[in-house]
Write a structure and sequence with these properties.
93% helix; 97 residues
Length: 97
């Protein structure tokens, strides 16, 4: 009976020596994959925020130009040629950016 118990114990130990390293390696790989996935999601979110900031800046420039045009169109006493030159300067500054 002791021989059978020793054989069963040896089999269990051998099985554990085979299974545990595989489980550990698989777990490490899953953890690395999850970390990489989170890093990529973070990069995507940062890129989206950067794009949104760029779009907000473009929208603000368009809104500023629209205000100037509205002021020119609705203010008959203003010097239109001076305001047109101001618009050209704003356009030139926008192209530099």
């Amino acid at each position: 009976m002791d021989g059978d118990l020793l054989l069963i114990f040896g089999f269990v130990v051998a099985l554990a020596l085979i299974v545990f390293p595989f489980v550990i390696l698989t777990h490490r790989r899953v953890v690395r994959h999850e970390e990489r996935k989170l890093e990529l999601e973070l990069q995507i979110e940062q890129a989206r925020k950067g794009q949104a900031a760029k779009n907000d800046q473009s929208f603000q420039q368009l809104e500023d130009r629209l205000r100037v045009l509205k002021r020119i169109a609705t203010d008959p006493s203003a010097d239109i040629s001076r305001q047109i030159e101001n618009l050209r300067e704003i356009k030139a500054e926008g192209e530099k950016v």
